[in-house]
Amino acid sequence: MDHVPGETSPDPATLDVLPDVAPQLRALRRRRGLTLEAAAQRAGLSPAHLSRLETGNRQPSLPMLLGLARIYGTTVSELLGEAPPERDPVVRAGRSEPVEADGWIYRQAGGAGRALQCLRVHVPYATRADIVRVHPGEEWIHVLEGRVRLALGEAVHVLDPGDSAHFDSLTPHRIGAATSGGAELLFVHTLMQSPVAELCLGDGTPHRR
């Protein structure tokens, strides 16, 4: 069987990680009035790849979920079936379960169904292999702990605790910790419909910690 980067085969140990994502992906695509072929093209996937995600034969990576959420005009929380019936303006710390993907650990820090998605993120140490991202929208980061190396185009900035950065994410960018133990930051990005399917998070398959 062929292997597509960013996609993993179901595994008995992880089948309960994203229990609602397959039917949610299909329902949201249909709600947007998109054919399988049109949605796959916008996401940079093959129709067969997207079909496998919608039937649960493959599990999507976290960046793939973020990209599909943008295309469908929703949030990762809704894709995961976690959207509450009513919007609660308060996000309690104890209700935010950490999710890990490729060394990145994130917790939801904002409400579902909003134009902005807010996360609290643990960023792993930066390496030269880190992927440079380019996608429509804006991003804002605020460093809580550690130091963060932010590459924007040809410029490289090192941010200390208390520093922030706000930038157009069409500028090629890369985010990583400048300290070996990683860094903690607040991460806010705009939710936009886009054919570009990646953000600044890790490329691994997400799993609950």
At a glance:
The chain is α+β, with helices and mostly antiparallel strands. The chain contains 5 helices and 12 strands.
Describe the structure.
One of its GO terms (cellular component) is cytosol. GO terms for molecular function: DNA binding; DNA-binding transcription factor activity. The structure is a single chain. By secondary structure, the protein is an alpha+beta fold. It has two domains: 60 residues, 434 Repressor (Amino-terminal Domain) (Orthogonal Bundle); 92 residues, Jelly Rolls (Sandwich), CATH 2.60.120. It has five helices and twelve strands. A seven-stranded antiparallel sheet has the order 9-6-11-5-4-3-12, with no helix packed on it. A three-stranded antiparallel sheet has the order 8-7-10, with no helix packed on it. α2 packs across α3. It is globular and about 45 Å long.
Essential attributes:
209 residues, alpha+beta, 434 Repressor (Amino-terminal Domain), Jelly Rolls, 2 domains, 7-stranded antiparallel β-sheet, 3-stranded antiparallel β-sheet, 5 helices, globular, disordered N terminus, disordered C terminus
Topology:
Blueprint: E1 7-8, H1 21-31, H2 36-43, H3 47-55, E2 59-60, H4 62-72, H5 76-79, E3 99-101, E4 104-108, E5 116-123, E6 138-145, E7 148-152, E8 155-159, E9 164-168, E10 173-177, E11 183-190, E12 207-208
Antiparallel strand pairs: 1-2, 3-4, 3-12, 4-5, 5-11, 6-9, 6-11, 7-8, 7-10
GO cellular component, one term: cytosol
Protein name: DNA-binding protein
Pfam families: Cupin_2, HTH_31
